[in-house]
């Protein structure tokens, strides 16, 4: 089973001529396989092959394929009118309806038709591979081959092993996916596999912030895009569809025996109940067709800069970034030499602008005795690379104890440093810091539980959902200490299970500090 030649140029069968099945057929045909396509709906497979032929012709028009490639691919495509026509397949990939009973019945039917060596793969995005293989004579040949939509464009394939899956089968599928031009990542069959599990906090943190009225969707989206994400969570949920996104969140929550870490959002359920499903229904967080997060309504503050001494405290990447930006702005400042663990902060006269550590501004003002205090978010993405790209959105909040005058000055200071300051209410961990910390935490648990390794998690998140970096790349940037401190502060503030720190991450803080 370990040899890639097991599959090379051998017949592949795809079952289900929907959006995923057709994409898989395209990839397999262009990799040189004869491909059977079967769908239970009469005429569906034939129509799909016609549609695919038109797609390939368009690719030839654009010069991406030769007419000979198209003709050869078309010649290898076969519309099957019954399952028995799949009997010579070396690999069957099912992309049928997402229903466990239907998938199990299909696998049983296939076992009676294909050869004992034929690998049976499922493209399921939420069902257990262990459960799909249950009751088969050779359950070891069942494996998840989880593609992402649109299949021809998305590079990631999660290769999912259930309890019975033979390691050699998973390895062979991993190699085949690479042969098809994909990046394959091994995953253990657990709820959400890698991507759909680690991505939960990306949506959940924004939904929690909306529930607490921290800011508008446009402000939250601007902040997250400021961290290098192509889309903010609200616009992305509008694109995915709130019904789909809510269903995935709910299924991960239920599959984890209602672990409060994954609890779905009332904000989203209300939208689903009201039919505000996003782009497809004309309205979600935004209205369509004009929709989208075009404005960011927290960015207007502009005030004269205070003629007071500016003193930069702290060390590390954010303090260095502030120093670079202060120098670029032409503002005179001094920098205090301090121990490595000193808090990163910018003293502006009697007031202070501090990097969030997960405690709310009210608490930090109370603890420090400085009422004129404001917090700013983790500058991730372009900013963290030390660039002085102007106008990148950054969340900030004044302490409730701060004077209105200081709040105006704090925003003016962030603007002078080149950011587009986005005011949010005094929520602990602001926007990006709590989102990234939770992505790191979820990924750490996935690795701790053997779902994937760290490299696999980073590849999955950058290729499967286009994150600007993987969770472990962020961990390397921020360190386990700052991440855990932030999560512990959130946990202390909200007192629930959501911010429970991953054992792996907690252990890493001791390593970092020894
Ligand atoms: P779809 O609804 O577009 O297509 C499913 C096709 O399967 C239909 O043409 C239907 O007639 C056919 N079908 C249903 N039961 C069948 C059976 N017993 N035998 C033969 N054909 C049958 O669905 P889609 O979106 O292509 O999803 C298919 C699978 O891929 C599901 O398991 C889904 O969870 C998974 N998936 C979907 C993704 C997406 O973004 N749509 C992403 C990754 C995985």
Structure description:
The protein has helices spanning 19-30, 44-61, 67-76, 100-111, 129-133, 167-179, 195-198, 200-211, 217-226, 233-240, 242-255, 266-273, 317-329, 361-368, 404-416, 432-448, 454-464, 471-494, 503-512, and strands at residues 12-15, 35-38, 77-79, 91-94, 119-122, 142-147, 156-161, 183-188, 310-313, 334-335, 345-348, 351-355, 373-376, 392-398, 419-423. With 514 residues, it is of the alpha/beta class. The strands form two sheets. Strands 3-2-1-4-5-6-7-8 form an eight-stranded mixed β-sheet, with helices on both faces. The chain is elongated, with a radius of gyration of 26 Å. Mean pLDDT is 93; it is low at 295-301. The protein binds 1,4-dihydronicotinamide adenine dinucleotide. 1,4-dihydronicotinamide adenine dinucleotide binds next to helix 1 and helix 4.
Briefly summarize what is shown:
By secondary structure, this protein is α/β, with parallel strands linked by helices.
Write down the oligomeric state: single chain
Structural class call reads: alpha/beta
What is the CATH class of one domain?
Answer: Alpha Beta
Overall, the morphology is elongated
Distance between the termini: 45 Å
List the uncertain runs.
Answer: 295-301
CATH-defined fold name of one domain: Rossmann fold
**Mean pLDDT over all positions:** 93
Biggest sheet: strand arrangement: 3-2-1-4-5-6-7-8
What's the CATH H-level superfamily name of one domain? NAD(P)-binding Rossmann-like Domain
**Strand segment tally:** 15
Give a short account of the largest sheet: 8 strands, mixed
Question: How much helicity do the residues have?
Answer: 40-55%
Question: Which CATH architecture of one domain?
Answer: 3-Layer(aba) Sandwich
What is the percentage of strand-forming residues?
5-15%
Computed Rg: 26 Å
């Amino acid at each position: 089973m370990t040899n890639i030649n097991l599959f090379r140029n051998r017949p592949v069968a795809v079952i289900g001529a929907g959006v995923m099945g057709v994409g898989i057929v395209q990839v397999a045909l262009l990799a040189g396989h004869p491909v059977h396509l079967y769908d239970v709906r009469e005429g569906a497979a034939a129509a799909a092959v016609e549609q695919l032929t038109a797609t390939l012709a368009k690719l030839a028009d654009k010069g991406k394929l030769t007419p000979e490639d198209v003709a050869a691919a078309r010649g290898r495509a076969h519309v099957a009118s019954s399952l028995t026509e799949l009997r010579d397949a070396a690999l069957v990939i099912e992309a049928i309806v997402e229903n466990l009973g239907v998938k199990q019945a299909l696998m049983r039917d296939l076992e009676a038709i294909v050869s004992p060596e034929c690998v049976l793969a499922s493209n399921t995005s939420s069902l257990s591979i262990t459960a799909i293989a249950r009751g088969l004579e050779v359950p070891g040949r069942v494996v998840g081959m989880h593609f992402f939509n649109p299949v021809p464009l998305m590079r990631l394939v999660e290769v999912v092993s259930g309890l019975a899956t033979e390691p050699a089968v998973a390895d062979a599928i991993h190699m085949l996916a690479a042969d098809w031009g994909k990046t394959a990542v091994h995953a253990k069959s657990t709820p959400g596999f890698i991507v759909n599990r680690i991505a939960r906090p990306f949506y959940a943190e924004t939904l929690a912030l909306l529930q607490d009225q921290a800011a508008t969707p446009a402000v939250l989206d601007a902040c997250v895009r400021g961290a290098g994400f192509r889309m903010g969570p609200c616009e992305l949920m509008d694109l995915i569809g709130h019904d789909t996104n809510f269903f995935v969140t709910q299924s991960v929550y239920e599959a984890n025996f209602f672990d409060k870490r994954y609890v779905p959002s009332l904000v989203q359920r209300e939208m689903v109940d009201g039919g505000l499903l996003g782009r497809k229904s004309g309205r979600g967080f935004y209205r369509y067709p004009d929709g989208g997060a075009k404005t960011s309504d927290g960015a207007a503050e502009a005030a004269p800069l205070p003629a007071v001494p500016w003193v930069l405290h702290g060390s590390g990447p954010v303090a260095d970034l502030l120093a670079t930006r202060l120098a670029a702005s032409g503002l005179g400042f001094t920098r205090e030499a301090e121990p490595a663990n000193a808090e990163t902060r910018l003293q502006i006269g009697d007031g202070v602008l501090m990097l969030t550590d997960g405690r709310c501004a009210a608490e930090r003002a109370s603890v420090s005795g400085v009422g004129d205090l404001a917090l700013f978010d983790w500058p991730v993405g372009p900013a963290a690379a030390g660039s002085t790209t102007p106008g990148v959105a950054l969340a900030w909040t004044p302490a409730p104890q701060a004077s209105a005058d200081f709040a105006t000055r704090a925003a003016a200071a962030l603007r002078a440093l080149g950011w587009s300051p986005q005011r949010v209410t005094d929520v602990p961990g602001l926007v990006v810091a709590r989102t990234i910390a939770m992505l790191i935490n979820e990924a750490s648990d996935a690795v701790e539980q053997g779902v994937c390794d760290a490299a696999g998690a980073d590849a999955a998140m950058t290729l499967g959902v286009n994150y600007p970096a993987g969770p472990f790349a962020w961990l390397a940037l921020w360190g386990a200490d700052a991440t855990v401190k932030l999560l512990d502060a959130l946990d202390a503030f909200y007192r629930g299970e959501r911010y429970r720190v991953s054992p792996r991450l907690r252990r890493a803080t001791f390593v970092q500090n020894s």
